Amino acid sequence: xAIIKSTKVTNQENALLxxxxxxxxxxxxxxxxxxxxxxxxxxxxxTNILIPVDAPVWSIKAAFDDLGTAGDLxxxxxxxxxxxxxxxxxxxxxxxxxxxxxxxxAAATALTEYRFDALDIDTALEKAWExxxxxxxxxxxxxxxxxxxxxxxxTLVGHIIIQCDIGA
Length: 168
Known about the structure:
By secondary structure, the protein is an all-beta fold.
C-alpha cells in the first residue's frame, strides 16, 4: 500500500456558485491529475479536493482517460488533516462511500456523476461525516480528502478530472 503522488495539472477551488443549497451557495472544486505508471492493490490516488466534515456533498463527478488494462477504482473519503506525503490506505474513513468498482480500463469515461452511485437518494442532505458512515462528527479533524483507491494492481497512465459541489 503506497501513496500515489500523481502530477497536479491544475485545480480550481472555492468558486462560489449561486445555487439553492442549504445556505444559498455551493462551492465548486475541480482537480485535474495525471496518474503514475504503476498502481498496486490498495494504493491511494490523492486529489486536492478537501471537504469540510459538516458540508453536504451535492455532486461528485469524474472523467477518466483509458487508464490501463486491469483493475477498478473506488471513490471515497480519507482523513483530510493527514499530510499528503504521509497518507496511506489506513487513513481511509470510507474508501468507497461514493463509488465502488469504477471501470477505468475499458475506454475513456465521460464526466459521470458518482454522488449517488453507492449512496441512496435519501442521503442528499446528509453532511460529509454522515456520508462516510460515521455515527458522530469527528473531533480530531475538520476535513475529508476525496481520494481514489485501486482495487487491484494495474498500470494506470492518463488523466483524471474530478469535480465536487458542496454546500457553503
